[in-house]
């Protein structure tokens, strides 16, 4: 699928020839925006999940759950390492980490040092990473804890042991969100293209 | 031989050594990762050996730091839950209750029982995995023409 849409065009007469070309390209029927557009996530890239857990067994388990669900996985053993990975540990600032594409962070709640809750707060404070959904996992079903996490912006709270169905549900909802965002973007581009085309027609090119 | 393996597994469930979580782990195995459960199991026993050692040392010192003991046991219970080690998990829960009650005697007794269950499970699983390996891959294997 090729999208060669430029949302700017020049009314400079010297660029008339390029306008004609552009008019041809921008004819709505030339734009292949079909309804079964695959999202970036499913057609080109896998969802990349950062998993954080201090337990060796749980790390191996969550990694497998995510791989089986067709996700790319990075696993770390502490919140501190997670922050290092994201460039939020204050060492390098966030320079160079803007390109790091993480679609989801799943973290254990009870960890020595920094808890999953504290990690959640740090992520939500970050201008680069605050939009990334963060899911908290815990073996303890403590309502005030759950409330606190959700209030702080956690996407979800999963009781351990995490089920494959939980992971699949998360993945599906993330893919849908990505697809919606993608479709909205394409729809916007289509509207812009239509608009440009109409203007060109009126200018009788 | 496959039947023998299946029977052994069934008895582990029937006798309460393992719970549904173990089955969840098996669901994650495939041709590309045929030993996943055995790998997780090995990791569990390595990790829990470390925890048992830590707790042993803490108890031997005589000073009952219940918070610290509870913290070790929280980890132990967590990984036992993740692998489906049902009886071990139950002992972990009991231990933690004694910790919270500040009951040193109860802790010692329970820990002794926990180590027994842990050791029993380890032997049974080792036996099971050994047989499973010998029996070869399950029905999903392609038969030679």
Automatic annotation (TrEMBL), chain A:
The record's section on SUPFAM superfamilies has: CheY-like
Q: Which PROSITE patterns match?
A: RESPONSE_REGULATORY
Q: What is its main location?
A: nucleus
Superkingdom, taxonomy of origin: Eukaryota
Q: Which InterPro entries match?
A: ARR-like (IPR045279), CheY-like_superfamily (IPR011006), Sig_transdc_resp-reg_receiver (IPR001789)
UniProt keyword terms in alphabetical order: Nucleus, Phosphoprotein, Transcription, Transcription regulation, Two-component regulatory system
On whether Transcription is a keyword of this UniProt record, the answer is: yes
Location of the protein in the cell: Nucleus
PANTHER family named among the record's database cross-references? TWO-COMPONENT RESPONSE REGULATOR, TWO-COMPONENT RESPONSE REGULATOR ARR5
Name recorded for this polypeptide:
Two-component response regulator ARR5
- Which species? Camelina sativa (False flax)
TrEMBL record, chain B:
Annotated compartments: Cytoplasm, Cytosol; Nucleus
Keywords from the named record: Cytokinin signaling pathway, Phosphoprotein, Two-component regulatory system
What Pfam families does the entry give? Hpt (PF01627)
Residues modified as Phosphohistidine? 74
In which broad location class does this protein mainly occur, judging by the first location in its UniProt entry? cytoplasm
- Tell me the InterPro entries matching this sequence: AHP1-5/YPD1, HPT_dom_sf, Sig_transdc_His_kin_Hpt_dom
Domain HPt: start-end pairs: 33-135
Q: List, alphabetically, the PANTHER family matched.
A: HISTIDINE-CONTAINING PHOSPHOTRANSFER PROTEIN 4, PHOSPHORELAY INTERMEDIATE PROTEIN YPD1
Entry domain remark: Histidine-containing phosphotransfer domain (HPt) contains an active histidine that mediates the phosphotransfer.
User: What task does this protein carry out?
Assistant: Functions as a two-component phosphorelay mediators between cytokinin sensor histidine kinases and response regulators (B-type ARRs). Plays an important role in propagating cytokinin signal transduction.
Identification of the protein by name: Histidine-containing phosphotransfer protein
**Naturally occurring in which organism (per UniProt):** Camelina sativa
Gene responsible for this protein: LOC104781263
């Amino acid at each position: 699928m090729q999208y060669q849409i430029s949302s700017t065009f020049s009314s400079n007469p010297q660029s008339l020839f390029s306008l004609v070309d552009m008019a041809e390209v921008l004819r709505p029927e030339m734009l292949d925006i079909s309804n079964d557009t695959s999202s970036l996530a499913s057609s080109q890239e896998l969802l990349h999940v950062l998993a954080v857990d201090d337990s060796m067994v749980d790390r191996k388990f969550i990694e497998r759950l995510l791989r089986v669900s067709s996700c790319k996985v990075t696993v770390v053993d502490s919140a501190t390492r997670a922050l290092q990975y994201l460039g939020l540990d204050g060492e390098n600032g966030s320079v160079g980490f803007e390109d790091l594409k993480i679609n989801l962070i799943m973290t254990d709640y009870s960890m020595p040092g920094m808890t999953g809750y504290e990690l959640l707060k740090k992520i939500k404070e970050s201008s680069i990473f605050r939009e990334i959904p963060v899911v908290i996992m815990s073996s303890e079903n403590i309502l005030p804890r759950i409330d606190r996490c959700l209030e702080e912006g956690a996407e979800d709270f999963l009781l351990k042991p995490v089920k494959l169905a939980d992971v699949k549900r998360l993945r599906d909802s993330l893919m849908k969100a990505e697809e919606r965002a993608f479709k909205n973007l394409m729809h916007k581009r289509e509207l812009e293209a239509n608009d440009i085309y109409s203007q060109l027609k009126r200018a009788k090119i | 031989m496959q039947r023998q393996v299946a029977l052994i597994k069934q008895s582990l469930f029937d006798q309460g050594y393992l719970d549904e979580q173990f089955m969840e782990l098996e669901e994650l195995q495939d041709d590309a990762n045929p030993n996943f459960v055995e790998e997780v199991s090995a990791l569990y026993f390595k990790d829990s050996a470390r925890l048992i050692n830590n707790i042993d040392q803490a108890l031997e010192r005589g000073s009952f730091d219940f918070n610290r003991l509870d913290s070790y046991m929280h980890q132990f219970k967590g990984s036992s839950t993740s692998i489906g080690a049902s009886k071990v998990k139950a002992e972990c829960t009991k231990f933690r209750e004694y910790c919270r009650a500040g009951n040193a005697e109860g802790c010692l007794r329970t820990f002794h029982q926990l180590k027994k269950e842990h050791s029993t499970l380890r032997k049974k699983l080792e036996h099971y995995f050994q047989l499973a390996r010998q029996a070869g891959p399950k029905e999903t294997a392609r038969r030679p023409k």
